[in-house]
Design brief:
six-stranded parallel β-sheet; two-stranded antiparallel sheet; about 35% helix; 9 helices; single chain; about 20% strand; alpha/beta; binds nicotinamide-adenine-dinucleotide; about 230 residues
Length: about 230
């Protein structure tokens, strides 16, 4: 029987997740939580729609949850799910501050509930190939690694709002920090960064982060728990 998933947040990335799940025999979207009144264009009318996560948990209709709500809500939603015993996959980042994520990790351990963050780049075969070759020493000692990311279109104003997402450098930058740690098998111990008004495009109207940002890990610690071979 397919795992019954509750989708929390059915916007841009929620629709991407839903499209990927559609047709799977192993997992299905059994319920949705989203305050938007009409999701009919994305989801069949027979998928039940709950007003909040507590109502979803009480319904007893799901086995696990996928959180794709705006970032500012993640820590509260995930903690509620974990305390309700629901295994959870949360889109990145899992919270806006490290203390929020540590609280989720503690709740997950206390309740013995699995929680994962959707760092999907770890599952890209080409990146896994690079990782394996770095760890095998194919490139020798790595002194410099550069990551970049971009979108086809500017994300929504809410996504770019620092109060909602933490800002692009945080909301999207977590991918780069996760990727560097995972690829190189080392822990970052210090970060240096600078903001610049140099950009290749006109700023997005009302974008609080019209300036570009560059950040770089300054120091690395070898990870004792992850041998490099
Ligand atoms: N893994 C990735 O590469 C990736 C890519 C894009 C977005 N994301 C993450 O996904 C999350 C959503 O981003 P998006 O671009 O889809 O945003 P979006 O604004 O398009 O969609 C968010 C949806 O959540 C709903 N929502 C708002 N408050 C809610 C609540 N309290 N409970 C449930 N639903 C609520 C909104 O009505 C909306 O439909 C963000 O955290 C973002 O960082 C991850």
């Amino acid at each position: 029987m397919a795992v019954r998933l509750g989708l929390i947040g059915a916007g841009r990335i929620g629709a991407v997740h839903a499209a990927a799940i559609r047709g799977s025999s192993r997992v299905s979207i059994a319920a949705i939580v989203d305050p938007r009144p009409s999701l009919a264009s994305v989801f069949p009318a027979n998928v039940p729609h709950y007003p909040d996560v507590s109502a979803l948990i009480s319904s007893g209709t799901i086995d696990a949850a996928l959180v794709a709500a705006p970032t500012r809500h993640h820590h509260e939603i995930v903690e509620t799910l974990v305390r309700g015993g629901i295994p959870t996959l949360c889109d990145k980042p899992c919270g806006l501050a490290s203390g929020q994520v540590e609280a989720i990790a503690a709740a997950a351990a206390t309740n013995s509930v699995p929680v994962r963050v959707a760092y999907w780049r770890r599952h890209v075969p080409a990146l896994d190939d690079v990782r394996q070759r770095i760890h095998a020493g194919t490139f020798g000692d790595v002194y410099c690694a550069v990551t970049e990311q971009w979108d086809e279109w500017p994300p929504s104003a809410e996504f770019r709002d620092v109060r909602s997402s933490g800002g692009l450098a945080k909301d999207c930058g977590v991918h780069d920090f996760d990727l560097l740690r995972w690829l190189l098998g080392q822990e970052i111990s210090a970060v240096a960064g600078f903001a610049s008004t140099v950009r290749s495009q006109d700023p997005v109207p009302e974008d609080p982060e019209a300036a570009s940002f560059a950040g770089a890990p300054e120091r690395w610690d070898d990870r004792a728990d992850e041998p490099r071979s």
